[in-house]
Amino acid sequence: MRSLPLFHRIAGQPVIVLGEGPASDAKRRLVERAGGQVVGDLQTGIERGARLAFVVTDDQPEAEAAVMRLHRAGVLVNVADRPGLCDFTTPSILDRDPVQIAISTEGASAGLAKHLRLRLEALLPAGLGLLAQALGAARDALRERWPDAGDRRRALDEALKPGGPLDPFVEHGTAAVDNWMRDSGQRAQTTRVELTIATHTPDGLTLRQLQLLGAADAILYESGVPAAVLDIARADAPRLCLPHDGPMPEGLVLVLRRR
């Protein structure tokens, strides 16, 4: 990964869009959909405090000159069809408000990103955003039900797993979150699961292995387990190299051994 994926909030903020034609029109629509204020003049945008800019031009010297001026003003720039001049790229976006899935190839192929999005569009239910909204509305109730952050995370992992009561790949009614909280247990149990890793890359992992890595509260691993595999686990899950003589972490503890 050579880029840091971020979601930038621009509602009510000026964003510079330079250029004319279908490509620049697409950038304007992108900004407007996110609530940003399109500014078509470079200097005006700088004076208004814009922090993002889109430059659309077939003239290389013109593009380079605009990028230089914008950089001097501290503005991050995207230049259409010129990845080498870009500070950021625009992904293909799957929108299930407030859920957004951004697919990027770092400028290598917009067509590939688009077709990946279209495949995912067919997989994700239309009501996924409603599930997210319900979980957001229940945040305080979740904290009250599971005061411990680890217990809360494990309860959500159990509910959101494939086949779980809140499986995000299944269409749910508006009361799904309330029904789950009413029926769920009070405290998740500590579980230890051992996996033998027989691959050097994440591509060789099974779906079950990927799910466990994403859900684990702590990782115990033998030396030789590839760093690329460890990187799949949650960033806040402790990584402990075996042999481990200290206290056993709580929750789902994943033990990775190298074949």
Would you mind describing this structure in some detail?
The protein is an alpha/beta fold and 259 residues long. It folds into three domains: 14-90, Rossmann fold, CATH 3.40.50; 128-183, no CATH class; 191-258, Tetrapyrrole methylase, N-terminal domain (Cobalt-precorrin-4 Transmethylase, domain 1), CATH 3.40.1010.10. It is 37% helix and 18% strand. The two termini are 26 Å apart.
Question: Concise description?
Answer:
The chain has helices spanning 22-33, 42-47, 60-72, 110-123, 128-137, 139-145, 149-160, 176-183, 207-215, 227-230; strands spanning 14-18, 37-39, 52-55, 76-79, 92-96, 99-103, 191-197, 218-221, 239-241, 252-258. It is of the alpha/beta class.
Question: How many structural domains are formed by the residues?
Answer: 3
CATH topology of the largest domain: Rossmann fold
DSSP summary: helix tally: 10
Structural class: alpha/beta
Largest beta-sheet details:
4 strands, parallel
| CATH-scheme architecture of the largest domain | 3-Layer(aba) Sandwich
- By CATH, the superfamily of the largest domain comes out as NAD(P)-binding Rossmann-like Domain
Strand order of the largest sheet: 2-1-3-4
CATH class of the largest domain: Alpha Beta
User: Share of helix among residues?
Assistant: 25-40%
How confident is the prediction overall: mean pLDDT? 90
Number of distinct beta strands: 10
- So what's the overall shape? globular
User: What's the Cα radius of gyration?
Assistant: 23 Å
Strand content: 15-25%
End-to-end CA span: 26 Å
Low-confidence stretches: none
SSE series: EHEHEHEEEHHHHHEHEHEE
